[in-house]
TrEMBL record:
PANTHER family (alphabetical): SHORT-CHAIN DEHYDROGENASES/REDUCTASES FAMILY MEMBER
Highest taxon of the lineage: Bacteria
Sequence segments annotated as region (Disordered): 1-20
Protein name (database record): SDR family NAD(P)-dependent oxidoreductase
Organism expressing this protein natively: Kribbella sancticallisti
Family: Belongs to the short-chain dehydrogenases/reductases (SDR) family.
One Pfam family it belongs to: adh_short_C2
InterPro entries: NAD(P)-bd_dom_sf, SDR_fam
Gene3D superfamilies for this protein: NAD(P)-binding Rossmann-like Domain (3.40.50.720)
Length: 278
């Protein structure tokens, strides 16, 4: 008889160690928005450990400074609001002045989920969501593009499975879907000059937001066929791949990194009992 799986052992099998022995970003420079914590900080660490220089931007200067101290010499930290075009342009200019080039833009900034019922959402709530998540990413691309053309660089936008399928949070989902459409169009428009545009679409990721909602996170975990919530490092690995020369012939692509939830939520209970299998 197949015995029940030990949950801890199951989770351990699915936590694939992240490679840190590659040097794909040696001599390269990446600018990452919303990099003070969570996914953005994990991306900064991944690019840095692979030999790259990083420009980390966020609204939280204290946390940026802490991450900068951790990363060492090849880092520049700047408080930047993606709703302010002049601040974005200044951050990009500072990156090029400090490091001499720009090879990768990672659009990670996004507005929080609107808690209002969709039929009651105000225009202000819609504008706030779109201004950060969608238009903010567009502003960053516009500022970075001239330098990315020079280096035949890359843009990776951190989207969401909400932009692909219906998981609720309509305003957030619409902004994330807009990111995908924007990146596809940029990919076609600038492919002939060698600039690539791709999206990583995470499922639920264990970020500081969930520290205040542990019960909800535990419920969400049950949805994932791989049996766990994603970690920021899972997304960082995908971003680092798409931004690197390993993905040189990939553009206009959305890469879901979501533990299998788009294939079918585990709550449907379609899985076989794999207890005891090793």
């Amino acid at each position: 008889m197949i015995r029940p799986t030990n949950p801890e052992a199951h989770h351990a099998r699915n936590r694939v160690p992240q490679r840190t022995d590659m040097q794909r970003y040696e001599g390269k420079v990446a600018l990452i928005t919303a990099a003070a914590r969570g996914i953005g900080a994990a991306v900064a660490r991944r690019v840095s450990v692979e030999g790259g220089s990083v420009v980390i931007t966020d609204l939280q200067q204290d946390e940026l400074d802490g991450l900068a101290a951790e990363l060492g010499d090849r880092v520049l930290a700047r408080r930047t609001d993606v709703t302010k075009r002049d601040e974005i342009e200044a951050a990009v200019a500072a990156a090029v002045e400090q490091f001499g080039r720009l090879d990768l833009l990672v659009n990670n900034a996004g507005a929080g989920i609107v808690s209002t019922a969709p039929e009651d959402t105000t225009d202000e709530e819609w504008h706030s969501q779109l201004d950060v998540t969608l238009v903010g990413a567009a502003r960053c691309i516009q500022a970075a593009l001239p330098y990315l053309v020079e280096t035949r660089g890359s843009v990776v936008t951190v989207g969401s499975v909400n932009g692909i399928a219906a998981f609720g949070n309509i305003e957030y989902s619409a902004a994330k879907a807009g990111q995908i459409a924007m990146m596809v169009n940029y990919a076609v428009r600038y492919g002939n000059v060698g600039v690539r545009f791709n999206v990583v679409a995470p499922g639920t990721i264990r970020t500081p937001y969930w520290d205040h909602h542990p019960d909800t996170l535990a419920e969400f975990e049950k949805m994932y066929p791989l049996g766990r919530i994603g970690e920021p490092e899972d997304i960082a690995a995908a971003v680092a791949f798409l931004g690197s020369a390993d993905a040189a012939w990939i553009t206009g692509h959305t890469l879901p990194v979501e533990g299998g939830v788009l294939a079918g939520p585990a709550l449907l209970d379609l899985r076989v009992d794999t207890g005891g299998l090793r």
